[in-house]
Design goal:
With about 350 residues, the protein is of the alpha/beta class. About 50% of the residues lie in helices and about 5% in strands. It folds into two domains: about 180 residues, P-loop containing nucleotide triphosphate hydrolases (Rossmann fold, 3-Layer(aba) Sandwich); about 120 residues, Zinc Finger, Delta Prime, domain 3 (Up-down Bundle). A five-stranded parallel β-sheet has the order 2-3-4-1-5. Helix 1 runs parallel beside helix 2 and helix 13 packs antiparallel against helix 17. The protein is elongated and about 70 Å long. The two termini are about 45 Å apart. About 35% of the residues are buried. The mean pLDDT is about 90.
């Protein structure tokens, strides 16, 4: 069982009173803090046949073994195909798996939740992320939540709970999971072998699981190359766009989003959040930018983060994005175009 240390007390609180546990729980909080691990640990503890005195799963019984090997007959995990299926076909070509949980996946639960438990105990359905339910799937799930069969627990994990139907949220007990304080998170990342845990944590807005994913050298080398260029008082946006043309576009937009946030944050509050290793450069540049113009550019990068997948022409996309940023530095304002 892999619950993270900063969530163990909350898990013990819930499982310690499992006789009164509601049929549906919605665990919500920002991405990358361990909500899915929490939900899985709760599910395993509910299914464990020899739990510890705290109520947590023993990790040794047959039920725990089946759970760990993803073979427990009384457990179902519902996720979008993009999280469960290969991203390439047999010929090595990229597949576009669905980002949504579709109605067929919810309909397939009917037999599972309405037949007797294989082990004579509870049954657990874990849905992650719950906001991936498309409208038809959400309405189909609502019927099960309104008339839940006895002994069935629905555990839902949401990064953005406000995207869920109010009728679904109203039928769940909400469990708000907080992220860790920086100190424990940094220690945990250090134990995971992350080279610069404080910087990785800052780069992800204090989301340790996301920070652990940044351990690859390419990410940090490419980030440093871009930030060193855009930190210069004058830089050639077209040349830089050519130099970074092979970088993942999503990373470039994300780096610029965090950079513009730090420009605004530094100018308004005198602090840097995401890029502490470039605090000196950000402080110098923030004096040159006009806040409202910087905010417009930042909002555009936020919008792009939500919609960008594969732009038709990545180089032109990057050129326009960097031209907008260069205009912000040159005039203190600049025009923000629609980069897509």
């Amino acid at each position: 069982m892999n619950v993270l240390p900063w969530h163990k007390i909350e898990l013990e609180r819930l499982i310690g009173d499992k006789g009164r546990l509601p049929h549906a729980l919605l665990m919500h909080g920002r991405q990358g803090i361990g909500k899915l691990l929490f939900a899985r640990a709760l599910a395993q503890s509910l299914l464990c046949e020899n739990p510890a005195s705290s109520g947590l799963a023993c990790g040794r019984c047959a039920a725990c073994g089946w759970f760990d090997s993803a073979n427990h007959p009384d457990f179902r995990l519902i996720e979008p195909a993009s999280l469960t299926e290969p991203t390439e076909d047999e010929d090595g070509r990229e597949k576009k798996a669905s980002l949504q949980i579709i109605i067929e996946q919810i309909r397939e639960l009917a037999d599972f939740i309405n037949i007797s438990s294989h082990r004579g105990g509870p049954k657990v359905v874990l849905i992650h992320p719950a906001e991936a339910l498309n409208p038809h799937a959400a309405n189909a799930l609502l019927k099960s939540l309104e008339e839940p069969p006895a002994g069935v627990h629905f555990l839902m994990v949401a990064h953005r709970a406000h995207y869920l139907l109010p009728t679904i949220k109203s039928r769940c007990q909400l469990v708000a999971l907080a992220g860790p304080e920086p100190g424990p998170a940094i220690e945990w990342l250090r134990a995971q072998g992350v080279p610069d845990p404080a910087l990785a944590l800052a780069q992800t807005g204090n989301s340790p699981l996301l920070a652990r994913q940044l351990a690859g050298q390419d990410y940090w080398q490419q980030r440093d190359f871009l930030l060193q260029r855009i930190a210069e008082r004058t830089f050639d946006p077209l040349l830089v766009a050519e130099q970074i043309r092979d970088y993942p576009v999503q990373h470039v937009v994300n780096w610029l989003q965090k950079w513009t946030f730090d420009l605004i944050f530094q100018k308004s509050l005198g602090r840097v959040r995401y890029n502490p290793d470039y605090a000196t450069q950000i402080t110098a540049l923030s004096a040159r930018v006009e806040p409202l113009s910087a905010l417009r550019l930042h909002r555009e990068t936020v919008r792009l983060q939500r919609v960008i997948n594969h732009p038709l022409n990545p180089r032109l996309f990057l050129e326009q994005l960097l031209l907008d940023y260069a205009g912000l530095l040159e005039t203190g304002g600049g025009r923000v175009s629609q980069a897509t």
